[in-house]
Amino acid sequence: MTTTSSTTTKTSSSSAAATSTTSSSSSSGTFSGRITWYQPSGTGSCGTTISNTMIVALNQQQMNNGANSNKNPLCGKQVNIQYKGKSVTATIVDTCPDCPQGALDVSPLVFQSLASLGVGVLQDVSWSFV
């Protein structure tokens, strides 16, 4: 596992490519990619304090941060994440600058709803906006 610094701290990473079944600028449809987890702290790119709750950092390509990311319409939106018959809903509060398109970086609480933290990376995860 690697560690990088940004508004979030990566505790796991993968170079696996992620794909989307719809356009990256769309907030509808089903997307697929990988999920990693990070230890959230401080202020996320949406301008709110983040902690280990049911939160997600969306990949930078789909987050499409402009000059004022605090006003990003995706901030506060919920996503439903599905992996091997399990499902969890989390709220977008941050951006994952190192995640490929389609990927999510989630809090430990969200990750543990799908698999053990020791797994580190989940491949072929499906997710959609609620």
Describe the structure.
The chain is built from 2 helices and 7 strands. The chain is 7% helix and 34% strand. It has helices at residues 60-63, 108-112; strands spanning 19-20, 30-37, 55-59, 78-83, 86-96, 104-106, 121-129. The chain is mainly beta. Strand 4 (78-83) and strand 5 (86-96) form a beta hairpin. The protein has a 6-stranded mixed barrel. The chain has a single domain, classed as Beta Barrel (Barwin-like endoglucanases), CATH 2.40.40.10.
Give a brief outline of the structure:
With 130 residues, the protein is mostly beta strands. The protein contains 2 helices and 7 strands, in the order βββαβββαβ. The longest helix has 5 residues, at 108-112.
Determine and state the CATH class.
Answer: Mainly Beta
CATH architecture classification name: Beta Barrel
Strand-residue fraction? 25-35%
Helical segment tally?
2
CATH topology: Barwin-like endoglucanases
- The gyration radius over C-alpha positions equals 13 Å
Helix/strand order: EEEHEEEHE
Q: Biggest β-sheet: count, sense, barrel?
A: 6 strands, mixed, barrel
Poorly predicted ranges (pLDDT <50, ≥5 residues)? 1-25
The count of β-strands is 7
CATH superfamily: RlpA-like domain
What percentage of residues falls in helices of 4 or more residues?
under 10%
State mean pLDDT (0 to 100 scale).
82
Number of separate structural domains:
1
Distance between the termini: 31 Å
